[in-house]
Amino acid sequence: MEQKKLDRTSFIYSMSKEHAPALRVNSGDQVVIDTYDCFEDQITSEQTTFQTVDWNRINPATGPVYVEEAQPGDVLKVSIDEIKLGNRGVMSTGPNLGVMGHQLENFEVKVLPVQDGHVAFDDQLQIPLNPMIGVIGVAPEKEAVSNGTPGAHGGNMDTKLIAKGATLYFPVFHQGALFALGDLHAAMGDGEIGVSGVEIPGEVTVTLEVLKEKQLQHPIVENNDGVAFLVSKETLDEAVDVAVEEMIQTLKPYTNLSLGQLTMLMSAVGQVQVSQVVDPLKTARFFVPRYVLEAYGIQLFPST
Hints:
The chain is mostly beta strands. Helices cover about 10% and strands about 40% of the residues. The chain is globular.
């Protein structure tokens, strides 16, 4: 395994097959990736106004990384080995932003120090860190997709499970996969209801591996607790339905359960969870605990 580095001077505002590779690696290589925050570090103080932010410079993702062995129809396995955060995060919300945007009259900004494993929200509250990646994925199958929008390729899924120790699996649509990531958060709740988590620059170390003879329709995230399908659609209802169906269809060949029995099992142990509700598409996930997989000897992506 070789380790390579990619600094944040190589970044993109969309995921696209048309982007020239910023770095080429082999399957199994580790890459250290430096990132801006989602505002491209434009928010410098709590006096920053809506008008002074260039909203065309949102969600830069460092990349893309071309993985030599990746071909359409493969799966790209992304192991998140480390996330290192900067020492200061920012948040913002305002009119027409997020769930409460219709009630907000002013654009507001908070600058939040990160210290001693916490985000200092104010004099009364210290929020525990949950370092995670908001934008991560590969070039989509068809036209370019803004980094603000999630999809089957990944993108702005804003899922708090995408953290150190997690592994993601993406469908590969184009040669080289063209992987990129950005939009780190020091902390973010399910839903990201105000349109920002604690946005922060940082450095992410990932290992990229190409899996042959594996196919996916939507990204999967796996950690020590279990596995989840991540699905982004126009409505949460649709995203939830597809995530559940994808999980059941994927697990069924590994068991002797009938479709009805597996559906009952998923109703007993599966968890419908919300990732984000503020992007152009909504992202939901359906999570199955690891003990269920172990009971049936299920390894979706066994180690080689």
